[in-house]
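Sorry, explain these tokens?

___
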Amino acid sequence: MKTPNEEVQRKVREWLTYADDDLRFAHIGLALPGEQHPPYHLVAYHAQQCAEKYLKAYLVCHGVDFPRTHNISTLLELCSDHAEWPLTLRDAEELTDYAVATRYPGEAAGVTAQDAQRAIENAERVCNRVRAALRELGMESI
């Protein structure tokens, strides 16, 4: 694939900026001080959002019209039409559970500190792999 045009690169950078904001917010949430534990469900949610947006940025780069979904498996499958690296990120599929359930009472109570940390680590793996893939496509200024 040739280097994406300026408009595509601009859109990809926008997706990455929003994704990086989610990851930064997840890190801040995990580090919140106080008598109660940090809101682990929100940390996991923002980690999921980061991974989702990174995968969508990659799809934007390839001109793929992706569905409105929070499903990491679906997004990895779409990405795998253009590369083999998505197969190395199957652990990130567990982030899908944090996309909706963690935003409402009752279903988020089970997110632990360990779950939140693992969610961040999965998001960072997606981030690093997608950034490397975009650099391979000629997007040096990401």
The two ends are 17 Å apart (CA to CA). Residues 6-136 form a domain with the Four Helix Bundle (Hemerythrin (Met), subunit A) fold (CATH 1.20.120.330). Residues 63 and 109 are 38 Å apart (CA to CA).
